[in-house]
Amino acid sequence: MVFGPASERDCRPRVVVMTEPKKQLTILLASPRGFCAGVDRAIQIVERAIERYGRPVYVRHEIVHNRFVVEQLEAKGAIFVEELDDVPDDRPVVFSAHGVPKSVPAEAGRRKLIYLDATCPLVSKVHREAERHHESGRTVILIGHAGHPEVVGTMGQLPRDAVLLVEDVAQAETIEVRDPLNLAYATQTTLSVDDTIDIVTALRQRFPLIQGPKMEDICYATTNRQTAVKAIAQSCDALVVVGAPNSSNSMRLVEVAARHGCPKSRLVQRAADMDWTWLDNVRRLGITAGASAPELLVEELVVAARERYDVVIEEVRTSEENVVFKLPRQLVA
Asked: Of 8, 107, 129, 150, which is the active-site residue?
């Protein structure tokens, strides 16, 4: 029998390449995570403003601290600027969720600009508390991070000498005040719950009569996300927080994980930024997201993990969230 070329090829021994099976990775998804009501409201304000007033709509400062969100809004017609000087007289402007000093809406009013305030209502609550204390003759000690937009906005509600900033316990133990009997404190809403308790304790030890909020100023979403991370930290070999490096609440989640049982913790903005070699020898990975990070970015990270591992998902929920904040009247009329 004579074999042709095709038959000869068919008779050659076939080489079967064995692929190594994927390693198993259990992902513990902390819940609640991601967008809070204040962030969701702020984004809606920008989107509704574009629908109502047309493109472009200007936004003073990043509406929330997440580059993906900012780029999505830019594609829809938002222009982000740092100061009102960059806003034309004939276009509307939105103030970010972090809040602004009183001088900003005052200047917008002087220029007769159309402006919409996307300040989170929980931040506005801190503003009102600070104003009430000032009207009662108290010096306000603000617990927060210097230079953060929320802190700049809160301090900008009062005259310069009426509010003092404290960032840590050491400053709380050494801060000098004019009248120790007439003091109050307020806090940035995105702080570490544990750190804030320590700072408040130090202030109360020095100034027993200091006045504080009836409820903690730290927002429900910040508290809930930190509680969820604490619930999974000891069960994880590593933990990733999806969020931006300029997001205070996201950075605090990294710190909380490290303090509560998972020192191998880091921030990742997107799946493309993930160093997968960092997960060598990791079998249980915790994932959460800061309050300004959309769930889409968490899903993106999980999909990327499935490409590399045999993934098992376990969601750990510590609380339910059903908070909704109303939009400004200009956008719902």
From this structure: 150
